[in-house]
Amino acid sequence: KRGQQSISKFFRTQ
Amino acid sequence: MLELRLVQGSLLKKVLDAIKDLVTDANFDCSESGFSLQAMDSSHVALVALLLRSDGFEHYRCDRNLSMGMNLTNMSKMLKCAGNDDIITIKADDGGDSVTFMFESPSQDKVSDFEMKLMDIDSEHLGIPETEYHAIVKMPSAEFARICRDLSTIGDTVVISVSKDGVKFSTSGDIGSANVVCRQNNSVDNKDNETVIEMNEPVSLTFALRYLNSFTKATTLSNTVTLSMSKELPVVVEYKIAEIGHIRFYLAPKIED
Predict the structure, then answer these.
(1) Helix or strand or coil: residue B124?
(2) B219-241 burial by CB neighbour count: b if 16+ within 10 A, else e?
(3) What secondary structure does DSSP assign to B64-84, as a single string?
(4) By the CB < 8 Å criterion, does B122 face chain A?
(5) b/e for B125-157, b at 16 or more Cβ within 10 A?
(6) CA separation for the pair B162, B169 (Å, rounded)
(7) pLDDT per residue over B161-191, tens digit each?
(8) Which of B127, B208, B252 sits opposite A12 (nearest CB)?
(9) Whole-number Å distance between alpha carbons of B233 and B251
(10) What ipTM did this prediction achieve?
(11) Fewer C-beta within 10 Å: chain B N or C terminus?
(12) Given an 8 Å threshold on Cβ–Cβ distance, is B233 in contact with A14?
């Protein structure tokens, strides 16, 4: 099984 | 005061068709440089970034930076009322609670205006750093759409692997498995038919096909698509919008639990 990562973890909140 | 006149109004219709199923509500940001949008899908797995540069509009007036919250389903309903050859003008007053879409037929014998209520949308703006990608694949957008559609009938996820031999799309499911390999080719007659692979390092990433299929709704905007990939980072699926900008979809890879 593979887990789906969230996109927000890759980019900084401005 | 904001007034943006887009002669090729069909581009805006196509942009909405490309993103309205992925994102429900979004802020359109208007500044001196252009008309843009950044939004995540409701499950925060994918992000869409749209830019329509100011110099791509016939007339572009934006007195001060403006962020307009719109429901994309409603916006799409309104834009569907514009003819494909119509010129579309977007108008808004600073601090107003509505936006007006004006449609002019090419012969100027029919002019319509549709006013839409704006909404307050609380969304976080993400900073997307410039990245050197391990591999960049440029291919015909229709080919990419075909592969995503075909593979999603077999499995839910696709492994995209770029090596010196080409780019491989692999999936597997209950009924079996499938691999599609596209090799670099050079088309003398038509650059749009080329598959071009720039690779610094081999890279292999796994993605949910449901999202990639959603991105391919942008296929009508461009004959080619670019996939930019780096190890353990989101893929960027980019469609250039002729002479005016781009739409970029970012999708987080799946990892072993």
Answers:
(1) coil
(2) bbbbbbbbbbbbeebbbbbbbbb
(3) S-EEEEEEHHHHHHHHTTS-T
(4) no
(5) ebebeeeebbbbbbbbbbbbbebbeebbebbeb
(6) 9
(7) 999 889 999 999 999 999 999 999 887 778 8
(8) B127
(9) 9
(10) 0.89
(11) C
(12) no
Tokens of B15: 């942009």
Q: Computed from CA positions of residues B51, B53, B122, B115, in that sequence, does the dihedral angle turn out positive or negative? A: negative
Q: How far apart are CA B170 and CA B161, in angstroms?
A: 8
Averaged pLDDT of chain B: 95
Which of B44, B157, B215, B233 has the highest number of chain A CBs within 10 A, making it the mutation to test binding with A? B44
CB contacts of B129 in chain A (<8 Å) are 11-12
Return the structure tokens found at B81.
């009322």
Q: Do A2 and B254 touch (CB under 8 A)?
A: yes
- Identify whether the C-beta of residue B253 lies closer than 8 Å to the C-beta of residue B229: no
Give the whole-angstrom CA distance, residue B251 versus residue A8: 10
Q: What is the DSSP letter of B195?
A: B
Residues of A within 8 A of B250 (CB-CB) are: 7, 10-11
- Is B46:B250 a contact under the CB 8 Å cutoff? yes
Is B251–A14 a contact, with Cβ atoms under 8 angstroms apart? Answer: no
- Cα separation of B188 and B231, whole Å? 32
Put simply, whether B172 touches A (Cβ < 8 Å) is no
Percent of chain B with pLDDT over 70: 100
Across the interface, whether the CB atoms of A2 and B256 are under 8 A apart is answered yes
